[in-house]
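Lab notebook, bench 4. The sequencing result for the construct came back, and we need a structural model before the next group meeting so we can plan mutations. Quick request posted to the team channel:

Model the 3D structure of this chain.
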Amino acid sequence: MSIREPEAIDEGLVELVESLDPNPAYVAGGRWDILHANRAAHLLFADFDSRRGHERNMLWYYLAEPAARALYVDWEAEAIAQLGHFREDYEKWSADPRFDDLLERIFAVTPQARTWWEERRGVDTPRNGIKEIRLADGRLVSLRQLVMSTLDDPDIQVVCYFADIDDSDYGDDIEGLLED
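Done. Here's the predicted structure in token form:
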């Protein structure tokens, strides 16, 4: 395949992501650029609306942002897993130089990511599951991540997070967690 065309989403996906608030949710394209994120996702991750270029990308966030290192309890395992998932998309679009540009920028900031990439680490990690995170106030919480693809363009993904119902410390009040 050649170059991935610029991506756009319809209002239906925007409405879906917005309706999931106060649960963090976002839409990512084939190169993991953030196409839309709700308020809770901006609070949990970053204000993607104010970012441009490679900084508006979820792989960049996972691997190059200091905030991600602080957010994920086991950042290295999370970073390796996400890099493995990205490899699947990269292999579909490897002729698109924007993928290589993103990876080279990440490798420049996080050199160990090049080793993980070359060793093909994290390839078999499931996309859905529990994410252990550390909030800004130091509290540790578990969130369930659900990743869904759209039928019209399977490379477009909706990613959402829900409170782990087994964690009795905070129930399903994600909004309260993010705004404390």
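The chain has a mean pLDDT of 87.
Will bring this to the meeting.
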